[in-house]
Specification:
With about 260 residues, this protein is α/β, with parallel strands linked by helices. It has 8 helices and 8 strands; from the N terminus they run βαβαβαβαβαβαβαβα. An 8-stranded parallel beta barrel has the order 1-2-3-4-5-6-7-8, surrounded by 5 helices.
Amino acid sequence: MKNPTGLTSVTFRHLSVRQIIDLTCQAGGQGIEWGSDVHVKPEDLDHARMTGQLCRQAGLEVFSYGSYYKLNQGLNPQVEFRQLTQAALALGAPLIRIWAGRTPSAQVSEAQMEQAVRETWQCCEIAREAGLQVAFEYHRRSLTDCADSAVNLMNRVNHPALKLYWQPNPELSEQENREELKRIRPWLCRVHVFSWLPDNTRLPLREQQSRWQNWLSLIDSSVPLLLEFVREDREEQFRQDLADLNRWLAEKTNAD
């Protein structure tokens, strides 16, 4: 079995929903994560419903709803997060991505951590009632900016609806990223795939082939792999990157 692959829609914020669906199909992807900032805004349920229908008509999965709900920002889960669940249901997304705040984990106080745990639990309960899951973006300058903090947060919330994304930190070495990935694997549900240098310069994915093949060996084949932020925001680069990723996965499957 090969990991399903596809696209995070925010990679091409300038393209329409139909253009993104066409591009994903042409490139050989199986699904899309739709961003809540441009393509599927939470207040427009009719558009969310239409987007999901267009995906299914094209034979694509809706992998997730990529929201920009951030912990510890004064949001009310009963208002803002509940609205996101309604949009996710209209879209047909099984999972809502949220962010673990906007503060580096090393700078978060115990009071802020406790607030984050309470808020996450509320979001998870709302999602569970709707038959959805919640997953944290794994990102720098947040409570999921390293494995130590991410594992601590997941253990303290301890909710069955809560999962984690993973993506490499360009500032870490290949082995350091591998160790991070190994530690968060029990909660892993989605992976953002990209090829960046420490200064965030974007490269073709194949220029980090050995790194990705190393990391892919740790990722269960059921976990969707979503390409994100390709070099120069070029559609052709996305096509090439997805072709390379699909080839590596086929080789991995054959080797297994």
